[in-house]
Amino acid sequence: MTDDSQAGMTASVIPHLVVKGAADALEFYKRAFGMEETLRMASPSGDSIVHAELRHGNGTIYLADEFPQCQSPQALGGSPVTIHLHVKDVDSAFQQAVDAGAEAVMPPADMFWGDRYGKLRCPFGHEWSMAQHLRDVSMEEMQEGLKQAFADPQGG
Hints:
This protein has four helices and eight strands.
């Protein structure tokens, strides 16, 4: 397991996803998002994954099978959390995830904050967003764009 304090690294925030079918989720996240599996620990019986780690760029995600004390979004009827990925080419990354089996929730579009942004739902119940930075936007432009987005019933 990663121990940033012992490795001399600065503190970081790491999402810890609980899923139903962690072995399948690991393979899906590698195919859909190009993640690299860096660690996998099975339960003593070998029938579940108690801890796994994936890397995306310089970020890490922890993953485990659901247990009675840790439930998946499917067991809970969804999750209010979205995991966000910054990518170089959002359109191709989005399509790669859809081709791997993710559901397109919001196809990529140019947003008022200067990113091209889209949202997906993976087969394991987690929502993912991804964005490609297009341009820097002043706070004034962002406030105006926000005002227009809230005036538009479609939110765009």
